[in-house]
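Help needed: design a sequence for this.
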């Protein structure tokens, strides 16, 4: 969590210019007052929590009807639906030829989950949950995370991309999805 916080400090405060596009400059819109921004964030958070409850109930019933494993639902279905807003922002940035922003959104989201959300959920499970949560994954999940990390590194190292590279990355995701659907972890 400390590394995540320092990463946010680095990208938003001390080295902000490294993450701005050369052609974009500053935003044309005036920033919102802090009170309005915090109130909007709180309101949207409550709405997202309510919609998430409905979504989880619906997904559980659909998963049973279609024979989906919990691993497939968690890694594929919930991840796609939960990241829809981030994907829309990343697609919009890519459409405007802002690859730096598009990749930053995608990788930032993954880093946020891995370095902040997951550890906070584990710590909260000791206080709020019926049983403590751990981060123990089956070996196949660890291998998939390793392949995903290596793929992201290889794709972003050159600083350039083309449609074929995107197609190959989608193929890696499709292979993960098929693996989780057809060969679920033992015990599921």
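Sure. Designed sequence:
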């Amino acid at each position: 969590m400390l590394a995540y916080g320092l990463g946010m400090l680095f990208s938003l405060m001390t080295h902000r210019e490294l993450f701005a596009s050369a052609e974009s400059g500053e935003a044309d819109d005036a920033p919102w007052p802090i009170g309005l921004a915090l109130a909007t964030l709180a309101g949207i958070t409550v709405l997202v929590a309510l919609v998430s409850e409905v979504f989880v109930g619906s997904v559980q019933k659909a998963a049973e009807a279609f024979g989906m494993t919990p691993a497939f639902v968690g890694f594929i279905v919930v991840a796609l639906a939960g990241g829809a807003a981030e994907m829309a922002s990343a697609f919009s940035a890519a459409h405007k030829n802002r690859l730096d922003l598009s990749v930053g959104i995608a990788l930032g989201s993954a880093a946020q989950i891995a370095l902040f959300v997951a550890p906070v959920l584990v710590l909260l499970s000791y206080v709020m949950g019926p049983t403590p949560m751990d981060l123990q994954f089956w070996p196949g999940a660890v291998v998939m995370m390793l392949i995903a990390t290596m793929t992201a590194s290889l794709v972003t190292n050159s600083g350039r991309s083309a449609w074929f590279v995107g197609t190959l990355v989608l193929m890696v995701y499709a292979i993960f999805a098929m693996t989780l659907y057809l060969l679920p972890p033992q015990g599921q």
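The two ends are 31 Å apart (CA to CA).
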